[in-house]
Amino acid sequence: MNELIEKLKAKDEWALREVMKMYKRPIFNYLFLMLGNREQAEEITQDTFVKVYFKAGSIRTENIKAWIYKIATNLALSEFRKRKIKNLFSLSDVSEANYSYDQNLGDNIIIEEALALLPEKYRIPLIMKEVDNFSFEEMSEILKKPVGTLKSLVFRGKEKVRSKFEVQFGGNNG
Amino acid sequence: MDKRKDMFSNYSSGEKLGDNFEDKVFSKIKRKKRQRKTVVSTMGVFLLGGILFVTNGLFFNGTDNNRGKFGNKYAGRQEVPLTDDVIFSSSDERNSYIIEHVGNFEESQSI
Known about the structure:
The structure holds two protein chains of two kinds. By secondary structure, chain A is mainly alpha-helical. Chain A is 78% helix and 0% strand.
């Protein structure tokens, strides 16, 4: 990994291709859950790797995953601010985007819908913790929030998603 | 309950990244590099223009200072040295003339 970082710092194209191979899919999933829009998620995933290329010289950590997620998070947050996605985000967009899912992916639709209804402050930590398996310490570094605050946000976010899930499946599944 | 526990860990978006994702990233990088080059060259041109402007300004100021040595009264007037011989031709039969110092009217009056 160190070699990869060094090559990335030297603006080596092969290194960037390797990094993209490893992280393009998880970053895209993360951004898709955050933004609820496929085109925007892909656009920002591309922008994330463009930034990775140009900012590689300033990497001061060995945790490249956290560093890339930090870039993606900042880009998504500026997108939130720019387009006021929070207000424009509609549940129907998510449902329409997932009409092609088969039955096994039904749960994913519910997760996406539930996350879409969550305020941004719960949504981001919850996705990072539950989908991308970050530790609270890593999240604290990326989101610049205390670990305690993040634990509380994830807990409350989960409760909100759970209540949505129970509405979908009824009380019998719990 | 189990379903709920695993709901996030099993999550994978059904959405797929478009074709040629890497190529799109590299073309964005190329575009950004070009933009940076343009910005740097434009800044260079402006910087050079600025340096020339400042340098010329200093040069002209220096010339004005030299002129200032002769006093403001003559500033801007052209000095023509009289080195040639003066030839007189008389039309009134006189052959004696007094050559007087010709100066500023105010100066002459004060004398």
